[in-house]
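Practice problem 4.
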């Protein structure tokens, strides 16, 4: 081939790539803070990058500017299922404000399935159920926006939603336009009645339709992990469910945590693994179990979407959901998903989960999944610290520094099914960034 022809071919290919990137609204994403910074003396072991592998993150991500940290808010499904109406949604918005939860970041008020009528209107448009949402979704959106909050809605990449309301498959543009005209800020997009069409074909059209509206709308994929969305959804949505539905039990919560853990290397600012919404406060788990659920969801950078009735919170539930130190782990700008790094005891039920944070810190959870109280140890070799490193350890549930000079490992006694969550920070003053 002639040199000139080669050159013009490569210019052409370049142009096509640029056009493709623009049309699908994805862009190369970079972390705000590099994973590792250099020090006068090394703090982290040479295997740090292997333990906290992020190599699969960020080749291309949606460039809608959202999800720089995992989304926070509330969703109607886990507590209300189909028993929703505009009063419940408004009262929930009010309660997010009066409890202070909105102030600490829970800003999305997300309506799940069952908001729409069973059939589209004569023009083919979705219609809010006139019995339960008589004022319409636009009025509700105005109410929620008036409180300084954001509103989410739900649809399905299939012929029907899971509760057999009209789905958006082949109606993507009309529905996205309608959602945008109502002022919707967030779409959860489900997977029922999908006609056997692969998710990779069904989810991008809604991304493009949302993008074409010109309104910035968070796009939350809910294909239950069936087609390993971590492998492809970074170019499609801001988060993707990695598992089947959670239920309000220890067995479900622990199973889901382990399934979501597998995909840690793929998450980061712009696109997160979603192990499903919180069950904290719904009554099926103990205080310790809910504390573990919240700690691990925060550590693994899961969306923090409250799934209980925030109009009737117990003091314990509010204490868990409003732990600002735990939330700060979830919302840390480094955006690296924490993961299970070490397990000992019977069937490995004494677990250490950990993840890097900005500012050369580590979040470490000691999670006792055994049936009896246990002393759990996090050795520096397992969490990726150099063995001579001296760290201070802050307990995020006790809200205090428990030691300023832990060396080579840290241990604590943890009650059955409870999880402690700590931040480890270098205690030696000479460790300054170069
Ligand atoms: C599916 C989803 C749930 C919820 C229900 C609603 O099961 O995974 O999160 O949205 O549908 O019908």
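Answer key:
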């Amino acid at each position: 081939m002639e040199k000139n022809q080669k050159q013009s071919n490569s210019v052409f290919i370049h142009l096509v790539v640029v056009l493709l990137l623009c049309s699908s609204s994805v862009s190369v994403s970079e972390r705000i803070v590099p994973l590792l910074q250099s020090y006068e003396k090394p703090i982290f072991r040479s295997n740090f990058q292997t333990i906290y592998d992020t190599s699969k993150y960020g080749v291309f991500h949606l460039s809608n500017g959202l999800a720089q940290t995992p989304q926070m808010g509330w969703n109607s499904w886990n507590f209300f299922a189909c028993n929703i109406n505009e009063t419940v949604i408004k009262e929930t918005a009010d309660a997010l404000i009066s409890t202070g939860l909105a102030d600490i970041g829970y800003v999305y008020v997300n309506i799940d399935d069952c908001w729409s009528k069973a059939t589209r209107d004569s023009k083919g448009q979705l219609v809010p159920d006139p019995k339960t949402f008589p004022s319409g979704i636009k009025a509700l959106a105005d109410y929620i926006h008036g409180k300084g909050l954001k509103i989410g809605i739900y649809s399905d990449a299939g012929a029907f939603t899971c509760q057999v309301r009209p789905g958006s498959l082949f109606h993507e543009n009309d529905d996205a336009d309608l959602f945008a005209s109502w002022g919707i800020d967030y779409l959860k997009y489900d997977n029922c009645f999908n006609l056997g069409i692969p998710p990779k074909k069904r989810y991008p059209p809604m991304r493009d339709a949302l993008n074409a509206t010109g309104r910035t709308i968070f796009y939350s994929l809910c294909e239950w992990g069936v087609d390993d969305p971590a492998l492809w959804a970074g170019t499609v949505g801001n988060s993707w469910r990695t598992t089947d539905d959670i239920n309000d039990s220890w067995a479900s919560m622990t199973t889901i945590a382990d399934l979501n853990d597998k995909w840690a290397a793929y998450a980061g600012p712009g696109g997160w693994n979603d192990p499903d919404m919180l069950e904290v406060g719904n009554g099926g788990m103990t205080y310790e179990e809910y504390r573990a659920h919240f700690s691990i969801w925060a550590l693994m950078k899961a969306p923090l979407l409250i799934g209980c009735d925030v109009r009737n919170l117990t003091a314990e539930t509010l204490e868990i959901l409003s732990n600002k130190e735990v939330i700060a782990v979830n919302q840390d700008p480094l955006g690296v998903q924490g993961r299970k790094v070490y397990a000992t005891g019977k069937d490995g039920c004494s677990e250490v989960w950990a993840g890097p944070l900005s500012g050369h810190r580590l979040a470490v959870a000691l999670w006792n999944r055994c049936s009896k109280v246990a002393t759990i140890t996090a050795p520096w070799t397992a969490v990726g610290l150099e063995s001579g490193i001296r760290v201070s350890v802050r307990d995020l549930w006790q809200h205090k520094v428990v030691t300023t000079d832990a060396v080579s490992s840290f241990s604590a006694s943890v009650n059955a099914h409870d999880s402690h969550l700590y931040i480890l920070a270098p205690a030696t003053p000479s460790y300054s960034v170069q």
